[in-house]
Amino acid sequence: MFENPSILWLEILVLFLVGLFLVGMLGIYVYKKAKHIPTGDCSYCYKKKQKLLKDYHKVYGNNH
User: What contacts 1, CB < 8 A, 6 or more positions away?
Assistant: First the structure.
């Protein structure tokens, strides 16, 4: 690493992109936790639950 000066810019670019990816993933995780959106395995069922409740309230109303 950092031995050949002709490809030094490529190595720096790769390191920057990997760092940007990790910061992005961490940012998404923090955003979901701040907005109380489920993460991990619960996020899969959360979407189905929201649609099911919406369809239920459409048919039966909010009083049931």
Answer: 11
Structural domain spans, the chain: 5-60
d(CA 28, CA 44): 16
Tokens of 14: 């790769």
C-beta separation of 42 from 51 below 8 A = no
Compute the distance between CA of residue 8 and CA of residue 27 in angstroms, rounded to an integer. 28
Closest CA to 43 of 32, 57, 54, 27: 32
Taking the whole predicted model, whether its pTM rises above 0.70 is answered as no
pLDDT digits (tens, 9 = 90+) for 30-52: 999 999 888 887 777 777 888 88
